[in-house]
Each structure stands twice: as C-alpha cells, then as structure tokens.
Amino acid sequence: MFLCIDIGGTNIKSCLTDTEGNCLDRMTVRTPEMYEEILEVIGSVADKIDSFDACAVAVPGTCAPETGEVLFCPNLVCLTGQNLKNDLEKSLEKPVFIENDANLAALGEYYFVEKGNIKNMIFLTIGTGLGGGAVLNGELLTSDISLFEAGHINLTPDGRQCGCGKRGCLETYASIGGIIQTYRSLSNGKEAENVNVIYNAAKAGDKVAALTFEVFGGYLGVGMASLANILVPENIKIGGGISEMSDIFLPHTLKIFSKNIYPAYKNRVSIELSTLKNTAGLSGASALCKTKLSNI
Fold first, then answer.
1. What three-state secondary structure class fits 201?
2. β-bridge pairing 130-136 and 139-140
3. What is the pLDDT of residues 106-135, one digit of tens each?
4. Regarding the domain delimited by 2-104+278-295, which CATH topology (the fold level of the hierarchy) does it fall under?
5. Is this model's pTM higher than 0.90 or not?
6. Which residues pair with 14 in a beta bridge?
7. What is the side-by-side order of every strand in the sheet holding 96-100?
8. What is the full DSSP assignment across 58-107?
9. I need a surface site. Which of 29, 34, 179, 258 has the fewest CB within 10 A?
10. What's the CA gap between 1 and 159, in Å, rounded?
11. Cα(152)–Cα(130) distance, integer angstroms
C-alpha cells in the first residue's frame, strides 16, 4: 500500500492506493499556511491508515527528488528551503519520495494509461498555473532537480509579469489567471468573478469571452509547438481544470499548433485530453512509490 499526497496551493489531496494504483481511501483538506502545519496534516492522514509501505508527495514547485529539498515554491512559499523528504521520513518512519506535481501527473497518466502504447509523452496541467512533465523512452524526465517547467518557457520577453519573477512566461497567458487578465484587457477593464463566468459567457455567444478563449488557445498552441519541436513526443496530454473547457478552445489550439510545429514533426504528434484528469498527480505518486521500491 502507498500513501499518496498532492500538495496544492489551496488543498492537500491524499489517497491510499494498492500497487496497481487503485485508490482505496481519498481525503481532501485545506492547505495550511505554515510548513509545520502541513507536516501535521500529512501526519494526521497517515495516522488514520492501518499500514502502508511508502509515501510519495507531489510538490507544487521545483524540488531535488534525491535529497528531498524543496528549492523554489512561489505559490506556497513556506515549502521553499524545507527538506520535506527527511522531515516526513522522521515522522512517518517510512520511505518518502518527492517530485514536482506536474511531473507526477505525467508519470501517472503514462504509467496507468499509456504504458505499452507509446514511449514518449508530454503532459500539461492547466489551472491556476501551467505545469508540465515529460516521459522519454518510457521514463519520467528527471534529474537531481525536477525538470520541465513548461509554463515558464518565454513567449514575449517584455510581456506579462509572472509569479516566478520573469516576464512573458507561457503561464501568464495560458492559465486561469491569464484567461481572466486577457478578458479584462479585451473588455476595457471589466472584471470576471472567475474563469467559469467567462466560459459560460463564451458558450452563450459573448464575443469578447469567445475571443478571450481564442487568445488563450493560440498561446497554448504556440507553447505546445515549441515543446514538441524539442522533444517530439508521440502524444501531448492536456489535464487540469481548464481541460474541462476544451470544447471552446481546443479547435483553435490545434490550428495554431499545426502552424507552428516543425514541418517534419507535424504528423508525428497527437494532442489529447488527459484520461485521469485531476487524479493524475495522485496516480503518479503511486507509480513513483512502486518504481522506487522495486529499485531498492
């Protein structure tokens, strides 16, 4: 049995899985603001479980998987500089593995959906931000530091300010915040309560709302083409909350992607929605436990 944890800026999701990734017990709690409280939440979840063999944690930022240190976590700053792996191993008295959340989403989608079908895949999770992970030759692309910050490839050097400190990152245009900012710009300052309001307006025929998603889809298409030009995956999967709105943006995204991908790669890369959707990260944590324990 594996204890799988997905730490988000808003919620901490947990799941106890068997070795085949089947979720047996799922919980969701609000993410505390203090690091010690996050450790306490994970500890309390573990206390409710009779037994498990290992724990894997999806981290919303850059980490060092082998040493266990969280290196940069702008959306949950209390994690930055903390050694999450060591601290949890002390309290749980079990092996603990950590990895970037989008990387684990990629691993989960590949391991439990695509393994045996393809060998190379990119996974993008689009929500509050834009994260990415890649699988090459059947293995998660990783190193001594978590890799593939897809949301921070630069589209416009002097563009929108990003939470990472740079300007013009893909995430500033292709995310929930990016959609809301584009809508505000196109509507001369009109505020939308949330992205669902803009989506529903677009579905109802609002031209500004529809244009907002067209702009979003265009930036996403350019970004995906740039990533595909480097790795040439067989498949790009789109997950996260915004993937549920694909009917309003995906046709334009595919059109822009086709225009911008290197000609020799055009017919080699397909784009699909994630099968596991918002559970991909927890599934990836389960797969990480299984693969790590098999190597010990």
1. helix
2. antiparallel
3. 999 999 999 999 999 999 999 989 999 999
4. Nucleotidyltransferase; domain 5 (3.30.420)
5. yes
6. 5, 27
7. 23-30, 11-17, 2-7, 54-59, 96-100
8. EESSEEETTTTEEEE-TTSGGGTT-BHHHHHHHHH-S-EEEEEHHHHHHH
9. 34
10. 46
11. 8
